[in-house]
Amino acid sequence: MSRADFLRLSLGGAMTLAAAPFAPLAMATPPTSTTAAGASPAANLTKIATRRIPVSGASLPVIGCGTYVGFDEVPGSVEYARLPGVLNTLFAHGGSVIDSSPMYGRAEQTTGELLKQSNSRGNAFVATKVWTSGREAGIRQMEESFRLLGVDRVDLMQVHNLVDWRTHLATLRDWKAAGRIGYIGVTHYTASAYVQLESVLKAEKPDFVQLNYAIDDREAAQRLLPLAADLGIAVLVNRPFGGGGLLRRVRDRPLPGWAAEVGATSWAQLLLKFVLANPAVTCAIPGTSRPEHMADNLAAGRAPLPDAGFWTAARIAAVTG
After folding, report:
1. N or C: which end of the chain has fewer CB within 10 A?
2. What is the pTM of this model?
3. 31-41: pLDDT as tens digits
4. For residue 162, which phi and psi values (nearest 5 degrees)?
């Protein structure tokens, strides 16, 4: 099934899934935006599963949306016109996490514009990052992020790629105590930083860690994911498709028959279900700028979710080989 076919089917059907409700830090407001085609999202779509944020006990949907590249668009462009549909689809299926950064060009501003236009801030768990050196520079950058996002409170503020992490974590703890941010996190996207990232997690015990993990990029499962589980740190997974290269390689291959055992009807769903098979993963945040891709990704968050035993060495090799 293609992503476009999946979207058409999912928007026309209604199913049920028992999953803990997500309670965002802001008061929930029903989405009032329309898709890029002008149609309101269906209200009875199957909601995706949620997982617990250890530090608070709140629930977070297991699939979110990254804004790298895809949201770096300007109003009036064809690409920008598709983005309201991405957020509509995310919220309609029970998703909430939108992850951005000052590093991502115009993505924060675009996110803020879309949330304001659709009056859907209450449905979003907004995550962004600080990506500079020095206390005052970090404060200026975060204040600018607040302005661009159009918020007075950010759900998750992360130190991007551990840049000047000691300085920024001190500021973030102050801002969390003052109620300006909900959670504190650190991020990286490459295994070369794992030794440092492990050290920071042990010393600082942030609320969240964001890292790379995929079926062809499994090193995080050796030490970092078990450590996060032991320390009670929620995990956001970036690059869940291995940076996109694997998805491009497999997309023209037939989906293996055993994918049906976990309800996967596309390669994107199967790759995301690999990530979610690790119980330490709280939410995967694949980036996209297309509503049909967002819907396809979200389908991976519906039951059944596999456990680690589903992913035998032979099945992993069948995907990555």
Report:
1. C
2. 0.86
3. 333 333 333 33
4. 65, 20
Q: Do strands 65-66 and 59-61 pair parallel, antiparallel, or not at all (unpaired)?
A: unpaired
Any idea which of 166-170, 240-244, 274-278, 289-293 has the lowest mean pLDDT?
240-244
Rounded to the nearest 5 percent, the helix, strand and coil shares of the chain are 45, 15, 40
Q: What CATH class does 47-320 carry?
A: alpha beta
CA distance 192 to 199: 13
SS3 15: coil
Strand 50-52, strand 59-61: pairing = antiparallel
Structure-token pair, residue 228? 């996060």
Q: 102 φ, ψ to 5°?
A: -60, -20
In whole angstroms, how far apart are CA 189 and each of 6, 144, 239? 30, 24, 8
Q: Do you find a cis peptide bond into 304, omega within 30 degrees of 0?
A: yes
Residue 181 token pair: 């941010």
Q: What is the rounded distance in angstroms from the CA atom of residue 291 to the CA atom of residue 5?
A: 12
